[in-house]
């Protein structure tokens, strides 16, 4: 497991926990022989339990981070399945902005989940809410359309333009004006 930079505050701590849980989920997924259904969910659940065992997060915090991680992995996998594009387009900005490590982890998780998703019916596109922990990317406010760029795993803030709290992930390869977090 990669040594992650120590967090500077609670928001950073949740982002670090998100990345650690993603790493553990990838490790766990290699040990799961039944690749049907939501096997990545099982891998994330094991990572969530481990975070609680190690007292890295409270049970409630760990459950929240696990749900966010499951959502993001499924969303990335659905994007790969639907478009066949590079994962950097799902993230919404160039790779240089974030670590190769997080891209590699998401690529592994999304690739494995894409195979499982083909066996499941498609769900509606994921919505993101203020205070959700999210993977890096660009998020579009459902109220005003303003774009917010998140450069590393962390908490999604309210829209800086209208204080809206519901977002969708911008998976277009287009640039544009956006707030940065």
UniProtKB/TrEMBL annotation:
Superkingdom of the organism of origin: Bacteria
Pfam families, sorted: DUF1451
Protein name: Zinc ribbon-containing protein
Organism the protein comes from: Solemya velum gill symbiont
